[in-house]
Amino acid sequence: MNNEIERRRTFAIISHPDAGKTTLTEKFLLFGGQIQVAGAVKSNKIKKTATSDWMDIEKQRGISVSTSVMEFDYEGYKVNILDTPGHQDFAEDTFRTLTAVDSAIIVVDSAKGVETQTRKLMTVCRMRKTPVIIFINKMDREGRDPFDLLDELEQELEIKVRPLSWPVNQGVKFKGVYNIYEKKLDLFTPDKQRVTEKVEVDIDSAELDAHVGDRDAAKLREDLELVDGVYPEFNVEDYRSADVAPVFFGSALNNFGVQELLDCFVEIAPSPRPTKAEERMVSPEEPKFTGFIFKITANIDPNHRSCIAFCKVCSGRFVRNQPYLHVRLGKTVRFSSPTQFMAQRKSTIEEAYPGDIVGLPDNGIFKIGDTLTDGEQLHFRGLPSFSPEMFKYIENADPMKAKQLQKGIDQLMDEGVAQLFVNQFNGRKIIGTVGQLQFEVIQYRLENEYNAKCRWEPVHLYKACWIESDDAAELESFKKRKYQYMAKDKEGRDVFLADSGYVLSMAQEDFKNIKFHFTSEF
Ligand code: GDP
């Protein structure tokens, strides 16, 4: 059992759209032998055209089901890559997926540097102290100066960095990378578009000049000296405690620098770590099974409204057909066909170990965040909701179908499609999302899966803040003063719906003993 845990690497590849996440994932799968040719992995990016074709979105959702988890064996390690939606309107899904990983690889476009989505995702990693490795991609294109990029990473992502490889020029003059970790030079040949040679060269030898030319050799020596001067020696523990992010340079498209990244990753990335439950810390080595649901995906076949709930195994061994406790429902459940996922297929499994993701057929019994155990009353926590960025009232557009609408909204929210707030003053329901596409998906799915019709009405809101205070009187007085803007989230927590940044800062100013949180986990 300990050996099985030790060899598992469960992680997510995250990036701002277009930085190269899909391309890198695909190259990893090639090394893992899961696919034989490039181009076999479909991007689960939802491309929205002016006249959006809904079947297309449905199909693409289907693709994202099959590529939700990708498992492969590599050099004795069992690698589980958790895929995240490419479209930023589904960022919540990505945030939740990050609660199920033990580490992450962040892909950054060398020309664009840190982008909005990178920043947000890193916030989640920081909150959870998830170790990250950064891959600076597209070195075959004209990009920014590596030192500038590293400074930007440190500043914007609020983490110390340590380069473990270093590029020799870039764009059309890109010659390769010097692998600081292995002290080897990997040469890039542009016309062949892949690594042609790996040479062990002493950085001070004339051999280096022979390989990359005098000028680039001199620059590399100078750069490496600076790197060693500026960045402290790499220490695995600093990485695992999420204090330092190792950085690699390469080109995913050209499969350059990718294997080096993968080799270093499996060696240094943490195996499954203890998971925090409300009651106690749960260590993966414990013999009894525990796990939690971090993602629910609806089936694309409208005739069989069934979902797959993704369960991360936190401790013990998960066994098929074994009775487990569904803690929230207080019910015993068994799974006769739990699945595991390979690049494009899925198969029934007999058992799974900590770090693994098991797909459980779900006919509506699961909510995001549910805990499964071998009988113990445990509640895994830490599935944060973030303040949405867009808000709309949801109204019933077909009075005959009020029940269906209610059921649909409830289930979609359980799946985590968006967030629901009920205004305590007028009882109206407000849906909060990260992007417009989520509203469209909700409306479409309500019609197709629940036979209910909804209508959106505008509501002008700036942010939703979860509020708390040790000063009960002040909390009460705040709620009284702001009664028109007080709502409850799905868990019944108090949420203040601020209609402008000004109102929010005034409230923060006037009520000093109240804490305003922009995530539900505090
Ligand atoms: P994702 O949105 O992060 O999944 O990005 P993709 O993997 O779909 O890549 C976005 C685009 O960048 C695609 O057209 C890729 O072919 C391209 N791309 C990815 N990696 C590289 C690279 O190393 N060099 C160049 N020039 N293009 C790349």
UniProtKB/TrEMBL annotation:
The entry's keywords: Cytoplasm, GTP-binding, Nucleotide-binding, Protein biosynthesis
Locations listed in the record: Cytoplasm
Keyword Ribonucleoprotein in record: no
Binding site for GTP: 15-22, 83-87, 137-140
InterPro entries: EF-G-like_DII, EFG_III/V, G_TR_CS, P-loop_NTPase, PrfC, RF3_C, RF3_dom_3_sf, RF3_GTP-bd
Chief localization: cytoplasm
Domain Tr-type G, chain residue ranges per copy: 6-273
Pfam families for the chain: EF-G_D2 (PF22042), GTP_EFTU (PF00009), RF3_C (PF16658)
PROSITE patterns for this protein: G_TR_1, G_TR_2
Domain of life: Bacteria
Family matches, as PANTHER family: PEPTIDE CHAIN RELEASE FACTOR RF3 (PTHR43556)
NCBIfam families reported for this sequence: prfC, PRK00741.1, small_GTP
Record function comment: Increases the formation of ribosomal termination complexes and stimulates activities of RF-1 and RF-2. It binds guanine nucleotides and has strong preference for UGA stop codons. It may interact directly with the ribosome. The stimulation of RF-1 and RF-2 is significantly reduced by GTP and GDP, but not by GMP.
HAMAP family: Rel_fac_3
Name of the protein this chain belongs to: Peptide chain release factor 3
Source species of the chain: Xylanibacter rodentium
